[in-house]
Amino acid sequence: MLRLVPLALSLAALATNALEWTFVQNGTSGVIPVELITISPTLMLLYDRADGNPLLLPSGEKAWAALWNLETNTPTPLSSITDTFCAGGAFISNGTLVSVAGQPLETPGQPPADGRMGIRLFGPCTSPTGVNCTVFEDPENIHLAVTRWYPTGLRIPDGSLMIIGGSNTNTFYNTGPIAEDSIEFFPSRPGEEGSVRPSQFLLDAEPVNMFPRSFVLPSGRVFVIANNISMLYDIETDTETRLPDIPNGVRIANPFDGTAQLLPLSPPLYEPTVLVCGGSAADDTLPVTNLSTQDPATNQCSRITLTPAGVAKGWEVELMPETRILMESVMLPTGDVLLINGAQTGYSGYPSVSDADGMSNADHPALRPILYQTEMPAGQRITQDGLPTTEIPRMYHSSASLTAKGNVMVSGSNPQPAVVLTSEFPTEFRVEYLNPDFITNGFPRPVVVSAPTKILFNQSATLKVDIPQSLLRGPIKVSLMDMGYVTHAQHANSRLVFLEHVLVGNTLQITAPPNNNVYPPGPAWIFVVADGVYSEGVLVMVGDGGNPPRPAQGVKIPVTSI
Ligand SMILES: *[C@@H]1O[C@H](CO)[C@@H](O)[C@H](O)[C@H]1NC(C)=O
Ligand SMILES: *[C@@H]1O[C@H](CO)[C@@H](O)[C@H](O)[C@H]1NC(C)=O
Ligand SMILES: *[C@@H]1O[C@H](CO)[C@@H](O)[C@H](O)[C@H]1NC(C)=O
Ligand SMILES: *[C@@H]1O[C@H](CO)[C@@H](O)[C@H](O)[C@H]1NC(C)=O
Ligand SMILES: *[C@@H]1O[C@H](CO)[C@@H](O)[C@H](O)[C@H]1NC(C)=O
Ligand SMILES: *[C@@H]1O[C@H](CO)[C@@H](O)[C@H](O)[C@H]1NC(C)=O
């Protein structure tokens, strides 16, 4: 049978399966996955801080990094020289995961090194169990230009890492000399070795400007949100242009952690829309001791399309059924966004607000996820239908990420300055998965039988697929995804590009993203989605896989994004 599926049809909003989800708990992580990154079909990388963890290195020292095996549900400790606490990062164009900045503490058994300047290189890791996959560090020779903690790492169109903002100490409000309101790159750009670019925007966003939410647009420029303000950044000219504020005083960067996602980019126009959910509309001029764990977070989501017309229209507001802060947003292969973890009241950070009393800065854990249905009309996008309630509060320092298996790993929580097991919101090592019904019940799902390991921009490639007939009621979608570097409600680098494709029998012909602005060169996962049910992800290198910086690649598209 010949089955030709034209692209226009595949993007039409068609009624598909509404998924039912189930939480399943299995295993303990040994370290707290403050940072959670999907590495391979079987492995997740966990980064924490160097104190108190039950997981031990072969040397007997306490570990602060680990590989989580999705098949055995067990952690393997990883050795790292510097303290990775509250670092940022991304995969770069050669497939290496770069983690930058962290905590200053010197760590037992290691040479003196300031984690705030740390640059850690991991992988590519091809062993299914992670044997011989190590964190490479050379702190004497490879380090940041300045000390940072809570910065954002973003893979940019040349495949290198842009490092944005942060603080140089552990703080609630980031302001004055402790704020590192600047940008640098790894590798450094020519002529900028050892120096940084000051950012007026980050200065204006004090004191709520850590982990600025940042996205590469199809124009190659970068959209950044911190506090309640936003800007467009031109990397080549080092120019900042202010864009509309988030409405109603809602602030979303740390310590008022709301979450943000670039919604899927679809051909032929790849028009970018950014979604922001949760955070707090509290007055950021109040002293921290005048804030309370009981202050309600916001129930606001807002989105803006980053085209000239979209910017003129401004942010469109939608409301969640509950207030939310410290919440993760997980892009699913369908293009819907899962909002999960966090609290209904309070703030990020260590016990510091007036009534925290040595406990969490937040209260009223959010136990039931929310689904943001991207392709539904406004007013109908936000639902909790089909979503279960967990028993495990996941507050500050919790995380959630899509795995290559297609479920969501949910982990961590530690709103404490150390491992504390007796608090109302203790250090949480239990791992859960949020499984869609096709995984829970073992229903038939699409299978990618074979796929190339590398695709060049604008190039066609052929996949062999096996899609159950029962799911071929309508057009399929092919999703090319970066699952991001998850930490602090921030899914840096999360990206989904729907690929143009033609399905003929079991042969799926895809076309790679047109150029390195639409998908910055680096690793990606391909998922095939049929009737709302998706395959496991297949890892592919997009671009030539060379070390950054890579030259511009692919074809120019009529750019509609600012
Ligand atoms: C937990 O994971 C292990 C290893 O995959 C598996 O054998 C076991 O059945 C799982 N338990 C539950 C309750 O799912
Ligand atoms: C890991 O490295 C050791 C030492 O280089 C080598 O002998 C071993 O074969 C490697 N194991 C795997 C699975 O690659
Ligand atoms: C953003 O915050 C600033 C400072 O708190 C405030 O003056 C401004 O009105 C806010 N913008 C919006 C749209 O609420
Ligand atoms: C902060 O709280 C103190 C003690 O309750 C109060 O005296 C002060 O006016 C408050 N400050 C602000 C700016 O609200
Ligand atoms: C881009 O891809 C299209 C479709 O495959 C092809 O016709 C065109 O020649 C390609 N352009 C370049 C510059 O490779
Ligand atoms: C990837 O590129 C970075 C930056 O140039 C380099 O430090 C690292 O060694 C490269 N990784 C591999 C595996 O070549």
TrEMBL record:
Xref: CDD domains: E_set_GO_C
Domain Glyoxal oxidase N-terminal: 63-437
Transmembrane segments: none
Sorted UniProt keywords: Signal
Pfam family for this entry, one: GO-like_E_set
Matches recorded under PANTHER family: GLYOXAL OXIDASE, SECRETED PROTEIN-RELATED
Chaperone in keyword set: no
Residues spanning the signal sequence: 1-18
Segments forming domain Galactose oxidase-like Early set: 445-542
Protein species of origin: Mycena rosella (Pink bonnet)
UniProt xrefs under InterPro entries: Gal_Oxase/kelch_b-propeller, Gal_Oxidase_central_sf, Glyoxal_oxidase_N, GO-like_E_set, Ig-like_fold, Ig_E-set
Protein known as: Glyoxal oxidase
